[in-house]
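re: that chain from earlier
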Amino acid sequence: MNMKKVRVKHIIAASLCIFSATSSANIVKVDQVLGQLNPIEQRIEQTIERAQRLPLPVPVPQISIDELKAQISEPISNLPNVLNINIDSQNTAFVEVELKSGFRAIERQWLLMANSQQLNTLKQQNVTIVSVKNYNALNMSLVRFNVPQGVNSKSELLKALNLDESAIFDRNHIYQAQTGEPTIKVTQNKPIAPYCTQSVKIGMIDSAINTKHSAFKGANIITQSFLPKGLSSPNLHGTAIAGLITGKGANLSPLLSSAKLYSAEVFYRQSEYAQGATLFAIVEALNWLVSNKIPVINMSLTGPNNAILEASITAAIKQNVLIVAAAGNQGPASQPLYPGAYKSVIAVSAIDSKNQIYRWSNKGDYIDFTAFGVNVVTSQGNGKFGRESGTSMAAPHVSAALSCLLVKHGNNKTKALNELTSLAKDLGEQGKDTTFGYGAIYPPKSAL
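^ sequence. v structure.
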């Protein structure tokens, strides 16, 4: 065999090795991935099968199973430029499209924070008004409308609709769940104390929850869907987040032992690997949670900067609400993702049990805190338990801690945030930095 083929064999053999921090390497069988290879790769694999197995080159950098699975899945999970979101075989809820920015939005659909004068102006234009809704808890009114083909930018729309430059409007963008790939093997977790034992209210904006999971036996969970009628929400991501907050199991201790969890369902299925939420649904979810006087809202989702998202977040915070968001799993070179990158939102990155930053955690001056988010045990949508990784898994720690500190300080946000900052362990550069923020928030040895 010539040296070129030997080098190819080394590379492919190494790529089929999955390492985890807790288990030895396993060789992935070729027939498990053969169907996903193009014809050239198939011929290479057949050559390797006929050849004598070579030892792996050393050193091979160690990588967690979650991270490698995420890399393998990413090309598969790429969504088409135009995607019909169907209720059934005969009915389409809406069509989403990929924009030049790489983000996604509902096709030709925009949102406008409108007063009566702006609404009257809009009605006289060549647009289709889909809905006009008042959100009393947020003290805002929102018009959802479709524009003609060919109107593709805010500047074009501002001119075409004769709107004042002060008008707050933007696309009905799609936001993504910060989903981590599950690790099947579950090992014993170190028992943790809840952040507090008092009865607290906490909210989350996510996917559906498998409330029949054994982890939620006796749990107090209130759910509300904000999807179009007939469109269901997958339960993978929401079940994992809710499991961390209030789930119980042999290897799972809740972050809040007496929580009343309000869960707003906004995510729909884009593909086997991806879940999306419209901005319109997120605004409705925020209004519902604020109307129920939820003091802390956990948002494990990310997407583009958006004027309507920022306005609704600001409106919620004015109602004495704290919003905690996952920083994002696009890596340290990623552009800022929202809502976590807004100054008024508390953004959380993820670390592992050795205080090492999760390699796909976003980085930036908007990071406020970090928490455990790598290989954490939680409940899964299929009724089982497993390990998940990502900034989504870290955010509930900060949400839980703040929920307890608000009770302790009589709902005084400033005092709660000051104490949380004092509890954070500084892991990076002295003081607040772009990787760990003010530092790590750990499960307490005893309740706060």
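The CA atoms of residues 182 and 428 lie 28 Å apart.
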